[in-house]
Design goal:
The chain is of the alpha/beta class. Helices cover about 40% and strands about 15% of the residues. The strands form five sheets. The protein has a seven-stranded mixed β-sheet with strand order 4-12-11-10-9-5-6, sandwiched between helices. Helix 2 crosses helix 3 and helix 5 crosses helix 12.
């Protein structure tokens, strides 16, 4: 048991909250580490000079924030709160000869990309539109009616059939995730996710004071038995990416989706399904939203499929669900989604531009995937014809993911190691995510992949030798 005593100097507010704030600060600075057993309520009350009831309220507040947890007969302990690892921003141009960026998951936008021409045409048409001035006004919390209609049309392309009244227009997929999690959870709640997950979820969980519980994956996605066991922890929300899962690139087959839906229904689990890449697939299994319409929330953005800078996403609750709470959470986060970008996305969805851009992105992704498989060869044992933007590269024996990424960077290629995606205290696998869309040209991609092969063939080097 620790002899911890909080420093309450310079803090304002109710005493129980001041103690909880001091506890949080000491956890944040490392003074209290995960697993540390805290003083009993009576012991801390005597140290601080307050009533036992005040300490009880302070511990309850800290537990609500996800900072601590009590175990009957054992005491109160600091919870494990993983510090989110952020994806690095490219420090050099993506086609720089010294460092080829294969770490960031962007759609391929080669020279002459048709999105530029499409944007110019949309802006010229908007300039002549009688609705131009509307783009400068405040929008309703859930978005303009016309933009929600476009959102419903976009969602239908993924197999999600909802009315415009059930769509909330968001500032991209990440914002939609924020809105959904804020509406469905409270600080201290546990959210289930794939054991290897999108790093943006880890950042959101940290900010919202949520605990993530990683569920085992195999080549078909979430393992149903592992999800069933995880539900017994009391968690009520699952976040997952069944199509071209980030980072593994896996696609969950229909039979597995039906089993996952059955587990979710059995436990009353609410599912947040994110489909950032699904339209790149020529054949898509039905979305979980179609198999679990009563309790699945669906997110579909346009940034990964149309243009990265077009920060628009669409969020739909379960069929028949209300969007009032979602609209409120959206407004709290951003006040409103910019009408101008929502208008461009709407025009593209209705006039066929969006479908043409998706087809273009899909072709480029397929061709880059073929190039990657030709160059990496035996290092990718499982043949795969999927047209995604990223590969999950399992490393030969002797490598650790972070060590491999460091060696690769020294050779001039940037990658993201598995530790960035891993959820929970167990060791991350020896693997890295390789993104194929970031280099503007295939020549630059070829150069980066060549450096990746050189790193693999050179074998592990001691980390101490890397400067």
């Amino acid at each position: 048991m620790t002899s911890w005593k909080p420093d309450l100097r310079g803090r304002d507010g109710p005493l129980y909250r001041v103690i909880a704030d001091a506890l949080g600060a000491d956890i944040e600075t490392g003074r209290l580490s995960a697993g540390t057993r805290l003083p009993t309520h009576r012991e801390l009350a005597e140290k601080v000079g307050v009533t036992v009831g005040t300490v009880t309220r302070a511990y309850a507040e800290a537990e609500r924030r996800g900072l601590i947890g009590g175990e009957v007969g054992r005491g109160t302990f600091v919870r494990h709160r993983e510090t989110p690892r952020h994806l690095p921003a490219p420090s050099v141009p993506v086609d720089d000869d010294k460092l080829v960026e294969l770490g960031l998951n962007w759609p391929a936008t080669p020279p002459g990309d048709p999105a530029t021409t499409a944007l110019r045409a949309a802006l010229e048409a908007l300039a002549r539109s009688p609705r131009l001035s509307e783009q400068l006004d405040y929008a309703p919390q859930a978005g303009h009616e016309a933009h929600r209609e476009a959102g419903a049309a976009w969602l239908s392309r993924f197999g999600v059939e909802v009315s415009p009244a059930q769509v909330v227009v968001c500032s991209g997929g990440q914002h939609a995730m924020d809105v959904a999690l804020s509406a469905l959870t409270r600080p201290g709640d546990t959210v289930l996710c794939e054991a290897l997950t999108y790093p943006g979820l880890k950042v959101l969980a940290s900010r919202l004071h949520l605990r993530l519980h990683g569920v085992a994956l195999d080549e078909h996605g979430l393992v149903p038995d592992a999800l069933d066991a995880a539900c017994r922890t009391g968690a009520k929300v699952l976040f997952c990416l069944p199509n071209l899962q980030n980072p593994t690139g896996g696609v969950m087959p229909e039979e597995r989706r039906r089993r996952i839906a059955a587990v979710a229904r059995k436990h009353g689990l609410t599912v947040i399904e994110d489909d950032a890449y699904g339209l790149l697939l020529e054949r898509r299994p039905p979305p979980l939203h179609a198999l679990l319409p009563e309790s699945c929330w669906f997110i579909a953005g346009v940034s990964k499929l149309l243009a990265p800078g077009l920060r628009i996403g669409y969020l739909a609750p379960p069929v028949g669900g209300s969007v009032e709470r979602l609209a409120e959470e959206s407004a709290l986060a951003t006040r409103m989604t910019p009408s101008l970008t929502a208008e461009v996305a709407s025009r593209w969805i209705h006039d066929g531009t969006a479908d043409a851009l998706v087809a273009s992105r899909s072709r480029e992704a397929r061709e880059r995937m073929v190039l990657a498989r030709e160059l990496l060869g035996a290092h990718l044992p499982r043949p795969d014809e999927r047209a995604g933007y990223h590969l999950w590269l399992k490393l030969p024996e002797g490598w650790r993911a972070e060590g491999f990424a460091a060696n690769a960077r020294r050779r001039g290629v940037s990658l993201i190691p598995s530790e960035v995606f891993a959820v929970g205290p167990s060791a991350a696998p020896a693997a890295v995510r390789v993104c194929l869309g970031t280099p503007r040209t295939r020549a630059s991609l070829t150069k980066g992949l060549g450096r990746l092969v050189e790193t693999l063939e050179a074998g592990p080097e001691p980390l101490a030798s890397i400067v």
